Amino acid sequence: MVAALFELSSQWLSKALGFDVVIAKSTRIGTGQIGEVYRVELEYGTKTRAGPASVVAKMASLDADCKSFGVNSGLYEREVRFYKEIAPLLTTGPIATVYRVDRDEVSGEFVILMSDNAGRVGCDISGATLEEARLAMSELGRLHGLILNHVSLKKHGWMKRTKAWSAAEQMLEYWDRFKERYGDRMRPEHRDICQKFIDSFDAYHAALDATSAPTGLVHGDYRLDNILFGHSGGLPLTLVDWQTCYWGPILHDPSYFLGLAITPEFRREHGEELLKIYHEALSVSSPFPISIHECKAGVQMHSFTGMRQAITAASLVERTTRGDDLFLTMFERSCEHVADTKALEVLPPPVPVPHLEPEALDEKMHPFSDHPLHNESWYFDVVDAEQEVGVWVRLGVIPNQSGSWYHALICGPKIPTVGVIDFEAPHPGEDLIVHGAEYTATHKAEVPLKEYRITVKGKGVAFDEPATILQGGSGRPVDVQMDLLFETDGHPYKWRRATRYEIPCKVTGTFSWDDHTFTFTKARGQRDHSWGPRDWWSADWVWTAFHFDDGTHSHLVHAKARGGDYPHLGVGYVQREGEPLIEMTDVKAAAEMAANGLGISTTITMAPLPLTFYVKPTGHAPLCLMAKDGRVAKFPRSWATITTNDGRKGVGWLEWNINE
Fold this sequence. Notes:
It holds the Pfam family EcKL. The protein is an alpha+beta fold and 660 residues long. The chain folds into three domains: 116 residues, Phosphorylase Kinase, domain 1 (2-Layer Sandwich); 191 residues, Aminoglycoside 3'-phosphotransferase, Chain: A, domain 2; 277 residues, AttH-like fold. Helix content is 25%, strand content 37%. α4 runs parallel beside α9, α5 crosses α11 and α8 packs across α12. The longest helix is centred in the middle third of the chain and has 22 residues. The model has no long low-confidence stretch (mean pLDDT 91).
């Protein structure tokens, strides 16, 4: 099995080609990022007649991330199956002759050995000449006619998409990355066009799936970078990179080419002629008539696909200077294509997607993975602004570490920060009872998703200066007792991008230490539950849960991975009393921190709502998170008062995770 360039040996090539290869010289060609492509020049011995002077070998990417994407997304398998099963049916099509196809099911490594047509590779950035464009559209029409005659979905079911085009929330994440990376190079009108497309993403693809337009095998990425223009004696055009082929509306391909492979000015002058060339070539061999009007409608409807491809590819492949130029070119031309075809007029309106809600069984402990940082956490918090006090509690079960985390803390500007801090708590069972060395804590969903009770009783510590906790200082011993009931007061909200849910609550109960007791009666609070691998030392974030005087609840998170070319993640909701919950498409938080590590202020903006929250931390109950490998994350957590740009006031908790 060929797994890397150095294994394209003369011995392997002799066996693959059936000729006596004695010398093989390989040179990387092409600009693809998901796979590696090499031209292999050959010399032969005397045992057999001479074979081709050179061949082309395509293999998995040497970049680990790109290879992982190629394997997990099924791109490698799809291209291998195309050359094994479909290419032999299209012997007169613009497809290279295939000598050998091998794929290792376990590792995902593969090799496709094919004829070298020694053609000139097109360049998407510069765009096609008129001669190239005419040939490309003519060969595409002829190819689609061959496919409609000779390829059957019934015999090759793998060609049908088994997944949706892309989850809308995933596409929204890609769009956020694209805007963050290229925002200063994007024209405002292009941003607006794409935002309309993103907003209607699900409705648009539902319309495509329901279309009655002619369907067949779609190449999926028909542009110049994937086309070889031949020389005399060979194929006039060879189409490569069949990783994205699928069974669907064939008019995707001509629209995609017209939108990406030629400049907008060129398309406006020659686009109608080029579409007629495609239609004429298709009509010669298609087994059923397809009108030019159908072609024009298909081109209009599919003009959005170029921007989808540009945005997706920019997020998934290794970033390069040429890649940046290519993706921006694709994006800009696609937006101009949409504008010229008036495609926004046929774009279905957005369909409101109901927010996700947890199930009753989600309240229980979930199965553990073997990830060393697998974690299942239950968080609870409450604020009573009149008493100027707040409480937060966390049970964090970390089964693959020596101990779990348990914290229960009360704080305010007029009291010390008091409670239990234990980073080596005994792992609880499914009853979620923690039997610490000097305390016992219980956690029980008395009515799943509606009522949850937590208690703690035992020894704790008190800190007159909460920043001492961040600095690793010690507190004085105290007796602690807590009994709080959390009653749901709004819509439970399940994240789309992680295994986690949040529930706004009214909280009743007591928290005491020594001879001090605070009583809460229907005070405003929040609880959440998350499970899965959680690495606190790989990202910074601001988490918030706020509750306003008019009955509005909000939960907003701004997170940023440390290192790499990744934008921030912004998620959450705003739910007004008596109105549907509104999910946020973006959240940004800007924090001011004191020299001692505690928060001074935080400003939060969001989309699609034009709201700004001005947050003033009031009570502090921070932690310092120490990883087993020595990494440190400061975790200042505070309850705060909040005012908004539209004059509302509220309270709630927020946390900053700050890696050193």
